[in-house]
Write a structure and sequence with these properties.
Strands 14-26-25-24-15-22-23 form a seven-stranded mixed beta sheet, sandwiched between helices. A six-stranded antiparallel beta sheet has the order 6-5-7-13-8-11, with no helix packed on it. Strands 16-21-20-19-18-17 form a six-stranded antiparallel beta sheet. Helix 23 links the parallel strand 24 and strand 25. The radius of gyration is 32 Å and the shape is elongated. By secondary structure, it is an alpha+beta fold. Among the domains are: about 1-105, 2-Layer Sandwich (Alpha-Beta Plaits), CATH 3.30.70.100; about 110-195 and about 350-410 and about 670-720, no CATH class; about 450-555, 3-Layer(aba) Sandwich (Calcium-transporting ATPase, cytoplasmic domain N). Helix 25 runs antiparallel to helix 26. It is built from 26 helices and 26 strands.
């Protein structure tokens, strides 16, 4: 048996339905499990009921958004027990370290912005009603009363709803710089001030509806921008939390469960079958097979014996192992990988968006232009303060970067909706802009272009008695190929033969007795087969030997996405930690011209960095723990929803379904999106070129300036909606 199998996702008829947010994690939870295969409300119910039935579990709560379960249980209940329980009901689970992961915070910023939008919108509508009466001809005391009521509504509303802009502008000023929120805050304050001044002087015009309209549209743009970025999470934190928080230390002939932090170099730890290796170390006792697919992408389990070196994060498959610690905790290879991910993420966040570049050039000119208008009109009018301030405020509102603030979020939101309907979720607001620059696409193999699940392909070549014996033997093993074989045979409706004295030989296979003769299922040499296939399991039945060969099924859309990307002129690479024959066969099958096998996680990242050093913009598509550093190092990255939590967290986009074809759609839509963003910028520039001179010569009041600004914002939004 030679190929690793990812645990299958649970059968769940409700998984296609997007549920509401799950409950937050219980802060008193003693254990925290990652559940990468849950998808829906039905999964929540099944997992919580399954955990609640386990003896010693007081309560269990599932957070679907983070795909985690928080369990409050008796001290005698271990994470390994709960993982086994979940595996029995069809759910993959991994223990997370609650000390590494900060508790999940609700989306306070998003709710805060929505509340301020609601307040601004409600106040704007009420002041508009009062303003209609003024526009209809209300004069003198009636007009002043309506203006005063508008002031009572507008001033506290702007003070409350405009806080995101005021705080941001003040923070920038303290740092002795000017950002986009500086002109916005100044426009809001000056418009309120001149409106209040006009009201107290019984002036004909006040602009409270204008300032509320301005506040409302600006908050909408800010919320769209927030939603485009809100799904991003720290991959480094997720990766660090995958470290096993406790280990079984062997000392004086007794086993004691201790935190990883208490282990020292030279300690002996026991790694049970099915458990994740908690430390870097050397095997001193025991034989087994190790699944390294999460760390290296190797599909073939590795036979392990005394003297072999293990790394934290690998999975022990078949037999107990005693390991002497060489590195633990922050010194382990898994933690060093988390540090690399954090460094790569920091480098990528330095990307400057189109909006940022426009803001740097645009923001400083706005207050200077308004100040210039005030000074010039004070000179022209012979010191008429009211006229000069009105023109300065109108100029400030006209040039207020509301449309510029909407230009990017509106397009990203429209594009995100379109891609979501195609099965692709955008997590990072800058991902579309970065994706539009891509000229090179790097694919992982196992779990990305393939499903990562071996499927037997020659069952029809064997007689039914042999298949029934193979079913009995395979069901007695936890080996990935045995599980795949058992699943396929059960799907045919076969019943297992009566095999007695079943026992597993770690690292070799399963044996027993059938009709008085010994039978074995396992490695070729162990069962006496004369030749071995690349990926196979072998059955000895008396003097007969049967070989079961396996293939890794292509992910739906794999052939289509490669053809579409080549038609777009992209350079394609297949970069995998798998063995050379498997990688070469896959590259030939999909017509991918460039490929590399046996790549370690750091080598994948180094290869991508080398491509980018040559001037290429790289899209990385991967799913495993071994891809996390490469996903973070790439210019932009995509992971399937079936990927490990750390890989999904490191990615900018997530494929929600099994089909990988939307990757090509994302590249095409991203290029269209960037064109729309640039069109919005040109449109905003044209708007300023037309209306700023009108404001400067005094032909535009602050009210008409706000209306013109609103029309510009609406036009930008409509242009963005063309993406749909």
């Amino acid at each position: 048996m030679t190929e690793a199998l990812r645990p299958p996702p649970s059968a769940c008829p409700g998984c296609a339905v997007a549920p509401a947010a799950a409950p937050v994690e219980d802060k008193g939870a003693r254990l925290l499990l990652s559940l990468p295969t849950i998808h829906c409300a039905g999964c929540i119910s099944t997992v919580e009921k399954g955990l609640a039935r386990h003896p010693g579990v007081r309560s269990a709560r599932v957070n679907l958004t983070l795909k985690r379960a928080s369990i409050d249980a008796e001290p005698t209940v271990s994470a390994a027990d709960l993982i086994a329980t979940l595996d029995g009901i069809g759910y993959e689970a991994h223990e997370l370290d609650p000390g590494v992961l900060s508790q999940t915070e609700t989306d306070r910023q998003g709710r805060d912005l929505l509340m301020r939008i609601g307040v601004a919108g409600f106040a704007m509508m009420n002041v508009m009603i009062l303003s209609i009466a003024v526009w209809a001809g209300a004069e003198d005391a009636t007009r002043d009363l309506f203006h005063l009521i508008s002031a009572v509504i507008a001033i506290p509303t702007v003070a409350f709803a405009g806080q995101p802009f005021f705080r941001s502008a003040l923070k920038a000023l303290r740092a002795r710089r000017l950002n986009m929120d500086g002109p916005i805050a100044l426009a809001l304050i000056l418009t309120v001030a001149i409106s209040l001044f006009e009201t107290l002087q019984s002036g004909q015009h006040a602009y409270f509806e204008a300032v509320l309209m301005l506040t409302f549209f600006l908050l909408v743009g800010r919320y769209l921008d927030h939603r485009a970025r809100a799904l991003a999470r720290s991959a480094a934190q997720e990766l660090a939390a995958l470290e096993v928080p406790r280990a079984l230390r062997i000392a004086g002939g007794t086993q004691t469960e201790v935190p990883i932090a208490q282990l020292a170099v030279g300690d002996l730890v026991l790694v049970r079958p099915g458990a994740r290796v908690p430390v870097d170390g050397e095997v001193t006792e025991g034989r087994s097979e190790i699944d390294r697919s999460l760390l290296t992408g190797e599909t073939l389990p590795v036979v392990t014996a005394p003297g072999a070196q293990l790394s934290a994060g690998e999975v022990n498959l078949t037999g107990p192992l005693t390991v002497r610690v060489t590195a633990a905790g922050r010194d382990s290879s898994l933690h060093r990988m988390a540090d690399l991910v954090a460094a790569a993420e920091s480098a990528r966040t330095r990307y400057t968006t189109l909006a940022d570049r426009a803001a740097r050039a645009y923001a400083p000119t706005i207050p200077l232009l308004s100040l210039g208008a005030f000074v010039v009109w004070m000179w022209i009018s012979g010191g008429d303060l009211r006229l000069s301030v009105n023109i300065a405020v109108a100029t400030l509102i006209i040039t207020c970067p509301c449309a510029l603030g909407l230009a990017v979020p509106a397009v990203v939101t429209a594009a995100s909706g379109r891609l979501f309907r195609k099965g692709l979720l955008i997590k990072d607001g800058t991902a579309l802009e970065r994706l539009a620059e891509v000229d090179t696409v790097v694919f992982d193999k196992t779990g990305t272009l393939t499903m990562g699940t071996p499927v037997p392909d020659n069952l029809d070549a064997h007689p039914e008695p042999a298949l029934r014996v193979a079913l009995a033997l395979s069901e007695a093993s936890s080996h990935p190929l045995a599980r795949a074989l058992a699943t396929a045979l059960r799907a045919r409706g076969l019943a297992p033969a009566q095999v007695d004295d079943l026992r597993e030989a770690p690292g070799y296979g399963v044996q027993g007795t059938w009709q008085g003769q010994p039978v074995k299922l396992g490695r070729a040499g162990w069962v006496g087969a004369t030749h071995a296939a690349t990926t196979g399991a072998y059955l000895s039945l008396g003097e007969d030997t049967h070989s079961f060969t396996f293939t890794d099924a292509l992910r739906p859309g794999a052939e289509e996405v490669v053809a579409a990307l080549q038609a777009q002129g992209k350079t394609l690479w297949l970069l995998s930690g798998d063995v050379a024959p498997a990688v070469e066969a896959m590259a030939h099958r999909l017509n991918i011209p460039h490929h590399r096998a046996g790549a370690l996680p750091t080598e994948k990242a180094a290869h991508i960095e080398a491509l980018q050093a040559q001037g290429h913009k790289v899209l990385m598509v991967g799913d495993g723990l071994n891809d996390t550093v490469a996903l973070s190092a790439a210019h932009v990255s995509i992971s399937p929803a079936s990927a490990l939590d750390a890989a999904r967290a490191a990615s900018d986009m997530v494929l929600l379904g099994r089909d990988i074809a939307p990757v090509a759609d994302a590249l095409r839509i991203s290029q269209t999106s960037v064109r729309r963003i640039r069109e919005n910028f040109w449109q905003s520039g044209l708007y300023n070129a037309v209306f700023v001179p009108i404001a400067l010569v005094g032909w535009c009041t602050p009210l008409w300036a706000a209306l013109a600004m609103s029309i510009s914002s609406i036009t930008v939004s409509l242009n963005a909606l063309r993406l749909k």
